[in-house]
Amino acid sequence: MRYNHFLNYGSTSALYTKAIEVFFSFLTRLFSSPPQQLPSSESEENTELKIIVIKEGGKFFHNFQLFHRATLTSIDTLIFLPHLGILLGETVSWNLTELENATVERASRQIKRPPSTRFEATESKIRQKLADVLSFDFTPIYRFIWMKNLTEDEFDTLDLSFHELLPKKYLLFKDESGDSLKQKLYAMGPYRDEPLSSLKIIGALNSYTYILPTSQNPAGAILSPEQTHFLSVPLELQMSLTGGYGSGKSTLLLRKAMLILLTDREASVLFIAPTLLASELLRNEFVSLLYYGALEIDLLRITFTPPQDDITEHKCFQEATVVMCDDAYLLGDALIDRIKHHQGNRSLLLSTVNPDTLSEHSVGLLHRYRSHIDPRIVTSTSQNTLHLLLSDIRHRLTTSRRQEIMIVFADADYIDIYKDSIDEYLGSNCRIVTPSFSLLYQNLDDIVLTTPDSIGGLSIPHLFFIVEEKFDDYTYILSRASESSTIITYPNPQGEADAKNLQE
Predict the structure, then answer these.
(1) What are the residues whose beta carbons fall under 8 Å from the beta carbon of 19, sequence distance 6 or more?
(2) Which of these, 354, 294, 289, 310, lies nearest to 328 by C-alpha position?
(3) Any residues with CB less than 8 A from the CB of 155 and at least 6 apart, and which?
(4) What is the spatial distance between Cα 179 and Cα 176, in angstroms, rounded to a whole number?
(5) What is the pTM of this model?
(6) Distance between CA atoms of 253 and 258, rounded to whole angstroms?
(7) pLDDT tens digit string along 54-88?
(8) What 3-state class would DSSP assign to 120?
(9) Which domains occur in the chain, in start order?
């Protein structure tokens, strides 16, 4: 039944497309000067229509950029309604004065109809994108025209040929009420009792704004309006992206880089992350998003790297048009100053949690997407710290659905001792993550042992922090946990003897 509806709709669509093409060809030839192109600004939106769409649980996009493989298609207006489908809109700016003495017949004799219309080409691109991303999709697609400077009463005064060519059910007028707009939208196709998935369809069409599924979020997600705003901000010579831990800064830098490379074929990006592992994880996410979104970018145009003292001497820096520093506050002021000194005409984009490091052009993120978790704090002695840790790990492994665990040590000297004991107790093979840790020959499938300077880019359900009683700030470390965090404190160590006692 669903397949038959799709075929029937296609037949109806072909008739309407023919009418639309005649109409646009007529308008193009009617005037001595070419039609004025509409500026792509928020002010050109049909605000009333946008409000209706949002109230109906839909998505409204003005000047939508559809990236598919290596092509870019600009769509004047794209609407998604869960109970209807996708609607493609074209804005027409001509007024009554320009049209009142015109007839369609006079212009139609000049028409040399192209093999396909703009609407048809756009719809074809959308179907290709959905097919590549979702494999099999029958999302209905409808079309409409917004007469932004023409009222319905004014349209009624036009020559009869207009009404024969363009049924008013496909036209939205500047004086339409909210109720009228809603009625026209839902008159374009059958109402679907079972809603279409916004996450699936918009995530596919706007794939560079999609957050890929994880074990924590198996359905994936779409960037928030706050995050999407950052992507629309023009690139400046120096920019800052600020936000708390878990606000999505790394995610946004990655998508900003992708958008730059998709829209500017001459651009190249150098992406600096705090550790080698963080740079590898970001690169893997970048490649995965390209694959998911049916996008094509020459990977030689983007380099992911950890901080290097001589980075400005490397080819990747010298050829870059944009340099991005993720978690810039962890890279060191000396490196940032060196990059700025050799910046030239390159754009520099820094992400940070510190508002004091704001550049002249800055975008702030207010919302945190990784929930704050109040830690469980356990006070221990040097002799029973290991026992408490092993007991808690066993508890997490037997009671939690997600069992990934990371143990962070304030003192790196304790890692090897704890690894041997944990491996023997659990029959595991703990991974020791250092700033130079690479995924090239290893993975993160087992319990992770690390230090605060090596946790950049990592996020894990359960975190244990082993620390002596005095420590400056737990916030950054605890932000890596998504489900539970435990701080186990111990007295100030008394040298190597205390460490050896932990084995006993």
Answers:
(1) 165, 166
(2) 354
(3) 147, 162, 168, 171, 173
(4) 8
(5) 0.85
(6) 9
(7) 999 999 999 999 999 999 999 999 999 999 999 99
(8) helix
(9) 2-201 (no CATH), 212-365 (3.40.50.300), 376-501 (3.40.50.300)
